[in-house]
Write a structure and sequence with these properties.
By secondary structure, the chain is an alpha/beta fold. The protein has helices at 18-25, 59-63, 85-95, 110-116, 124-132, 150-155, 178-182, 197-206, 208-218, 229-288, 293-309, 344-361, and strands at 72-78, 101-107, 139-142, 160-164, 186-189. InterPro entries: CCT (IPR041723), Cyt_trans-like (IPR004821), Pcy1-like (IPR045049), Rossmann-like_a/b/a_fold (IPR014729).
Length: 362
Amino acid sequence: MPVRAAGAESGRGIPKSPSEAMEELEHTCPQPRLTLTAPAPFADETSCQCQAPHEKLTIAQARLGTPVDRPVRVYADGIFDLFHAGHARALMQAKTLFPNSYLLVGVCSDDLTHKFKGFTVMNETERYEALRHCRYVDEVIRDAPWTLTPEFLEKHKIDFVAHDDIPYSSAGSDDVYKHIKEAGMFVPTQRTEGISTSDIITRIVRDYDVYARRNLQRGYTAKELNVSFINEKKYRFQNQVDKMKEKVKNVEEKSKEFVYKVEEKSHDLIQKWEEKSREFIGNFLELFGPDGAWKQMFQERSGRMLQAFSPRQSPNSSPTRGRSPSRSPSPPWVINKTSPPSSPKAASASLSSMSEGDEDEK
């Protein structure tokens, strides 16, 4: 909304009072970003042009969400080289210190950083762009000062400065945030242990050979990597050795997989063979066992054969010979053993009777 100066006339031709004009000026401060579909703007593109007086706030007032007509402007600065989760976490803390806050992030230029801290991996343009795409940042200030001056704080209407509470000694000072702390404008954040730009650089230096070999394999030249001719040949040879090791490893894994599949199939075949053998044995016993079908069939057939070969029995009405039915002819040589003779006379009598019987038959 365009801001009209105090004393400007309204549509009715009546000049506005100073209080009405001040009320219009109170709402011109940039508001926090509500959408994350675009990167955060740079301060020199959308600087705070609010003409309303910037009242000094206490931390207690800011925590209550006052003033209601503008956000609390929080400033955080740094180098932000190799932007990582530790940086993002610090900015998240700065953004959430107060209920309604507008986070400005200052990024130092290459000249200042190389002068007071050292060489960086990312140049200043890359570091600016990395901060613009952090979700917690509302505005990025390029070429931020190393030491915060009252003029800088007034220009950007900064209410509080957020940083970890560890004294930051640099540029001949034991703590560059000492005057900010004394003014009651400092709010501490917590460092994330286990990660920092120095830690990442230490890992790269420690594993330099690994990264050099990897980038040579990806197509970078030895000149781009600042690698000597001898080291280049050594790295390329090591890459070939690693490829051979990888091939051998793949062959071993494939052979193990093949053996495993063969074992699985053999187990399946053995299991099927056992099932078939059990089925065969069961059928065999059912057919040829003690109570099997084959025995019953054999008994039935043998019974039929015996009936076929055995003579027929004479009928009950067949004629009999004309002799006493109680006496059956006996051969002359058969001796009656049931009643042996008690004396020689009896034996001779029995022999004479047998001879008489034979003469009668003749």
